[in-house]
Write a structure and sequence with these properties.
Layout: H1 2-47, H2 54-57, H3 71-79, H4 126-134, H5 148-156, H6 160-170, H7 190-211, H8 215-226, H9 229-233, H10 238-260, H11 266-276, H12 281-304, H13 308-311
Helix pairs in contact: 4-5, 5-7, 7-8, 7-10, 8-10, 8-11
Length: 312
């Protein structure tokens, strides 16, 4: 019995060694084949004139036009280390900006009314928003109850200075969001993702203006919301593309609410149509994949030669 067990163990050890050797050869062959295919892919893309250098795809701009240097966002980045988030909807606003949303930074955000949904024909219930804001100390509403539109505008009016600061920054012709060329997927995203939150504020404010018969101010909010997109379109990666889609969706709610109320005149519709024409979303999607491909290549280089700081 002892001799049998000894022989069995020897054969098991031999089989294990053979399996380990085969596994090593398998991974070595796969690594070689993957490197060969990737090198061939790069040559093919370069032959087609595609750019694989992320720095060449970065938007040109002066340091003062970098939106991440706007004081409001600089403080936010200092509070939150940058990270790449696949699900932007799950990204909470930085503490520096968390109060500047339609929920006013309240813990009762789960009670807030649903926003407009033009796909299902769901209009914005301003009376529900008025009731919600009346329940929040953060709204700082006067004791005298106004119309739903008046109370919504009063609650959101506390953000006018911050909104004006952001609008002035994104309106600069050279405004852009910078990319960390060495670690593209670790570029801070909080400031960019906050554009979604801001577009929700502008959407609700615009609809309140419509209800208050202030179509000029509603049009201005619509154009301001769309104006958040051009800096995101420069050096646009997939994260920026999804942010632009979300911002435009919130902007569309303003346009649809105005159409539903027959509030827009011909001149306003013409101005909004011109603003809606840019950027070309199909062209932007192609550009974002090009940037993402170059960023992925940069990350592959980092993984092949990782440094301690990157690993940390």
């Amino acid at each position: 019995m002892k001799r049998f067990l000894r022989k069995a163990l020897i054969w098991m050890a031999r089989i294990a060694v053979v399996l380990i050797v085969l596994l090593i050869f398998f991974y070595a062959e796969e690594d070689w084949r993957g490197a060969r295919d990737w090198a061939a892919c790069q040559k093919e893309l370069q032959a087609k004139g595609e750019t694989l250098d992320l720095r060449q795809l970065a938007p040109p701009g002066k340091p003062e036009d970098d939106l991440s240097r706007v004081p409001l966002f600089t403080k936010a980045y200092q509070e939150n280390p940058g990270r790449y988030i696949g699900l932007l909807s799950a990204l909470p606003p930085p503490r520096q900006l968390s109060h500047l949303d339609i929920n006013l930074g309240s813990e009762k955000s789960y009670e807030s009314p649903r926003p407009a949904n033009y796909v299902t024909g769901q209009t914005t219930d301003l009376a529900a928003w008025q009731k919600f804001y009346r329940s929040l100390p953060e709204a700082h509403l006067p004791e005298q109850v106004g119309t739903p539109a008046q109370d919504v505008l009063a609650a959101l009016g506390q953000f006018d200075l911050q909104i004006d600061e952001i609008e002035a920054a994104v309106s600069r012709p050279g405004a852009f969001w910078s990319i960390d060329f060495d670690r593209p997927f670790l570029t801070p995203i909080e400031g960019r993702a906050f554009m979604i939150t801001l577009s929700k504020v502008l959407s609700l404010r615009a609809i309140a203006h419509l209800d208050n018969q202030e179509t000029g101010l509603a049009e201005q909010d619509y154009l301001s919301s769309l104006n958040l997109c051009p800096p995101l379109a420069k050096g646009c990666d997939l994260a920026n593309y999804f942010i632009i889609r979300a911002v435009r969706s919130n902007s569309d709610a303003i346009l649809w609410e105005g159409l539903h109320r027959h509030a827009w005149d011909k001149a306003q519709l013409s101005a909004m149509e011109s603003a809606l024409a840019t950027p070309d979303m199909l062209e932007l999607a192609e550009s974002s994949f090009r940037v993402e491909r170059a960023a992925t290549l940069q990350m592959m280089k980092l993984y092949q030669n990782p440094d301690p700081e990157f690993l940390r």
